[in-house]
From TrEMBL:
Lineage: Bacteria, Bacillati, Bacillota, Bacilli, Bacillales
Chain ranges of the EAL domain: 23-277
Protein name: PAS domain S-box-containing protein/diguanylate cyclase (GGDEF) domain-containing protein
Signal peptide bounds: none
Organism listed in the record: Alicyclobacillus tolerans
Residues of the whole record sequence present: 296 to 574 of 574
């Protein structure tokens, strides 16, 4: 509500009340977006540097409002997490991404994997292994073509339940990757314990590695760490040919970033990136 009577009767900080109002507005918006089916998935290619070919796409959530605006997840994901609405949204993302990937395979394209971001809240509030199992069953996608992106924070929670869930997901044949690697607090012990398949080097390191030797040594260290533990490594946020070449020299063969493609709608993945299978 607007303060008609001036500042005299305020018993709370008006700035704070605006924050609360804004949160409630977004939360209501999210509920409506679920009802009105306003969420869409964009897909960003992950590319092998040697061949320039796509081998995977990351599914990234967008909220398409009625006036045609495209809202990025950074503005609403945290509110979706705190309100628990991330559960139905996350389930929809997983189902839609797996369904889309299965359709591409059925259309005769050479198979690629799809990766889906799963927030720690989804692991806390639901049985993610059961959800993954159901979605694979429902869509008919073979587990080897699904990848789950989690953050270091999830591993650090050090709970038996989460360890168990991740093991069950692994044992289905689904790949696990650690997103934004290097920005959290994961210890090498957790890496050894969970044996994720893939480390994704956070884009903040890639962004500055050409002019900052310190950032470059972090990138280089993560690449070597991954390889010595038998993991794959992907560099995120690659925006230039110079960065791609440097990564290749450092031994990182898989990349994702605006230099190759921004996240795009599924039709554009089909038209520009997928190749017809030879078999
Ligand atoms: P993320 O998982 O680290 O995704 C990468 C983000 O970097 C994406 O932002 C992508 O558009 C952006 N990006 C890609 N290449 C480049 C580049 O070359 N330069 C720069 N500067 N940025 C690049 P987006 O799509 O806005 O997503 C932001 C974050 O929201 C994601 O970060 C992820 O943490 C979260 N998110 C996205 N979709 C989902 C989802 O379905 N579920 C959950 N739980 N989180 C999601
Ligand atoms: Ca991600
Ligand atoms: Ca990331
Ligand atoms: Ca991120």
């Amino acid at each position: 509500a607007k303060n008609k009577g001036g500042n005299r009767f305020h018993i709370y900080d008006p700035k704070e009340s605006n924050v609360i109002e804004e949160r409630l507005r977004i939360e209501n918006g999210i509920r409506q977006a679920i009802e009105k089916r306003q969420f869409v998935l964009y897909y960003q290619p992950k590319v092998h540097l040697a061949s320039g070919k796509i081998y995977s796409v990351e599914a990234l959530l967008r909220w398409q409002t009625t006036d045609g605006q495209l809202i990025h997840p950074d503005t609403f994901i945290s509110i979706a997490e705190e309100s628990g609405l991330i559960v139905p949204i996350g389930k929809w993302v997983l189902l839609t991404a797996c369904h889309q990937n299965k359709r591409w395979q059925d259309m005769g394209y050479a198979p690629i994997s799809v990766s889906v971001n799963v927030s720690p809240k989804q692991f806390q509030l639901t049985d993610m292994a059961e959800t993954v199992h159901q979605v694979l069953h429902e869509t008919g996608l073979s587990p080897e073509w699904l990848e789950i992106e989690i953050t270091e924070g999830l591993l650090m929670q050090n709970s038996n339940e989460i360890t168990n869930t991740l093991r069950r997901i692994r044992s289905m044949g689904v790949k696990i990757s650690i997103d934004d690697f290097g920005t959290g607090y994961s210890s090498l012990r957790y890496l050894k314990l969970f044996e994720p398949h893939i480390l994704k080097i956070d884009q903040s390191f890639v962004a500055h590695m050409m002019e900052d030797p310190g950032q470059l040594s972090i990138v280089s260290a993560i690449i070597h760490l991954a390889h010595s533990l038998g993991m794959e490594v992907v560099a995120e946020g690659v925006e230039s040919a110079e960065q791609a070449l440097k990564l290749l020299q450092e031994g990182c063969h898989s990349v994702q970033g605006f230099f190759f493609s921004p996240p795009v709608v599924f039709e554009e993945i089909q038209q520009k990136w997928l190749q017809t299978s030879i078999s």
